[in-house]
């Protein structure tokens, strides 16, 4: 009997080693770092450099590309399939057997391996994968006949921005999705193509510029941003320019899609993109060992959330669908859980919560979704150029993303976090948020007025924490909202690792940061009824 058991154990071990695994392989360094930072046009476009200067965003080592010689050696390694790379994380995403992947540690430039199967890193419960698309089958004022899109735009008062001539002109939006078939010939996008506002495309699966992909989901979502059919349909930012990125492979659910998503964010940042819409979310994978647990969705753990937070630090605004799980999973999907983005839930045509919309809060107690837009009965353009209606937070997200773009167009020197916070604080139930509705339905008339009239700042400070100075060298001061006397502040580095946690009071409101190295951190300040997150630059 002992021999039989031993043989079984040996077989299981050998079988496990023979299985194909997915992993991120992290590198120890990069080449030409200082030269690249001193000469940013060697690694970024002029548009990207201009945006960073406008918003006072630092150019740092994360902007420097991954060393291609390292990537080449990984590609040529025995038994390894290469899928993606990330300059922000300085890593590549690969597949192979455990022995083949572990052999990469013998390369002098490989620092670490992070397995998609979390059991290989630490114990992790698993689940069953589900299809993420199951539920979604100038000088004069502008006046549009919005047609079928009227309700979804007027609900959030995006039409108010259009009347003020803010239609996305001069702004750049990136869209990550599963594919954009017949985009160039679709009549709803002819104004984009004919006016040279389709700036570029890339498919991270095929590594080509052909983004036809699988299914028409990307066409539907993008139509809610820039779609235009006279007297039939108008998107929320019809005159914006676009980059289209395919980051999904339809036949399966695999964490490499998170790697492609982050790679798309990096490319968007280097191209000068202002706003990113992502109508995708990740939680369950075909291999249940790769599935994210509830505890993973704390805004700083998953690869997608980590990348989203860096994109926020780089000055972009990310708008992301909250997910279509209702209360089935207990929180939003990733990257919607990330601290540095706007997660958008769905309401129906009357502005009431749509039951399929994923609810919050996040694992660490933050309000998610951030805001709501129409996602039940949303008007969209199909692949053949006809108007139809669909359900899902996949559509509330781009509706919101286009409006955010127009708002930012009205004050382009505003910081990304200022725009995001104003969108939250002018939503319908900001003072009484709920797990279902977050801060409520967005209101871009109020957001515009708040952005251009500083009176709202006093009201905001009365109800929220603030931190100063920022950038900070040694001592960070925390301003307390009215009627709050005690709080806890936690700082995370760019990889989502907690580096400091301490208690503060209204009278003892200073935190010493001199022991922390220079860099960018996320500070979360929590009291009983109030929670705020801030990007902190440590000098």
TrEMBL record:
Pfam families, per the entry: Peptidase_S8, Por_Secre_tail
Active-site residues (renumbered): 177, 217, 394
InterPro entries from the UniProt entry: Pept_S8_subtilisin_bacteroid-2, Peptidase_S8/S53_dom, Peptidase_S8_subtilisin-like, Secre_tail
Domain Secretion system C-terminal sorting: from-to ranges: 467-537
Keyword Signal attached: yes
Molecular-function GO terms, alphabetical: serine-type endopeptidase activity
Entry protein name: S8 family serine peptidase
Keyword annotations: Hydrolase, Protease, Serine protease, Signal
Family membership: Belongs to the peptidase S8 family.
GO biological process, one term: proteolysis
Signal peptide extent: 1-18
Peptidase S8/S53 domain span: 168-440
PROSITE patterns: SUBTILASE
NCBIfam families to which the protein is assigned, alphabetical: Por_Secre_tail (TIGR04183)
């Amino acid at each position: 009997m002992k021999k039989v058991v031993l043989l079984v154990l040996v077989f299981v071990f050998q079988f496990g080693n023979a299985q194909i695994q997915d992993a991120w392989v992290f590198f120890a360094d990069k080449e030409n770092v200082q030269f690249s930072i001193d000469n940013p046009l060697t690694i970024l476009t002029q548009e990207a450099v201009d945006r960073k200067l406008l918003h006072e965003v630092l150019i740092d080592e994360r902007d420097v590309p991954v060393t291609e010689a390292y990537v080449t050696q990984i590609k040529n390694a025995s038994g390894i399939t290469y899928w993606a790379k990330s300059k922000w994380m300085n890593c590549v995403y690969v597949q192979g057997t455990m022995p083949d992947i572990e052999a990469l540690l013998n390369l002098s430039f490989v620092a670490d391996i992070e397995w998609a199967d979390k059991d290989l890193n630490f114990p992790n419960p698993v689940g069953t994968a589900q299809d993420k698309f199951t539920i979604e089958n100038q000088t004069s004022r502008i006046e549009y006949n919005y047609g079928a899109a009227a309700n979804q735009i007027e609900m959030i008062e995006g039409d108010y921005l259009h009347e003020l001539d803010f239609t996305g002109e001069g702004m750049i939006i990136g869209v990550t999705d599963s594919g954009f078939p017949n985009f160039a010939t679709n009549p709803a996008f002819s104004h984009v193509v004919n006016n040279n506002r389709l700036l570029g495309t890339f498919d991270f699966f095929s590594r080509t510029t052909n983004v036809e992909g699988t299914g028409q989901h990307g066409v539907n979502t993008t139509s809610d941003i820039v779609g235009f059919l006279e007297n039939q349909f108008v998107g929320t930012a019809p005159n914006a320019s676009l980059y289209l990125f395919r980051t999904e492979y339809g036949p399966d659910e695999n964490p490499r899609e998170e790697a492609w998503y982050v790679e798309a964010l990096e490319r968007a940042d280097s191209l000068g993109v202002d706003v990113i819409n992502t109508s995708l979310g990740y939680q369950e994978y075909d291999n249940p060992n790769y599935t994210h647990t509830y505890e993973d969705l704390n805004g700083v753990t998953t690869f997608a959330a980590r990348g989203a937070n860096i994109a926020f630090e780089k000055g972009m605004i990310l708008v992301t669908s909250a997910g279509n799980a209702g209360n089935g999973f207990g929180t939003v999907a990733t990257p919607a859980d990330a601290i540095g983005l706007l997660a958008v839930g769905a309401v129906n045509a009357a502005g009431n919560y749509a039951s399929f919309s994923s609810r919050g809060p996040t694992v660490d107690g933050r309000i998610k979704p951030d805001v709501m837009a129409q996602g039940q009965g949303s008007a969209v353009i199909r692949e053949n150029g006809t108007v139809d209606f669909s359900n899902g937070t996949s559509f509330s997200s781009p509706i919101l993303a286009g409006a955010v773009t127009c708002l930012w167009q009205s004050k382009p020197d505003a910081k990304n976090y200022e725009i995001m916070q104003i969108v939250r604080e002018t939503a319908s139930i900001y003072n009484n948020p709920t797990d279902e509705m977050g801060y409520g339905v967005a209101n871009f008339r109020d957001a515009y007025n708040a952005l251009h009239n500083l009176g709202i700042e006093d009201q905001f400070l009365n109800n929220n924490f603030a931190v100063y100075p920022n950038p900070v060298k040694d001592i960070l001061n925390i301003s307390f909202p009215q009627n709050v006397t005690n709080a806890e502040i936690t700082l995370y580095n760019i990889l989502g690792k907690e580096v400091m946690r301490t208690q503060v009071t209204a009278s003892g409101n200073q935190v010493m940061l001199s022991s922390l190295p220079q860099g960018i951190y996320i500070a979360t300040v929590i009291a009983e009824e109030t929670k705020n997150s801030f990007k902190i630059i440590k000098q």
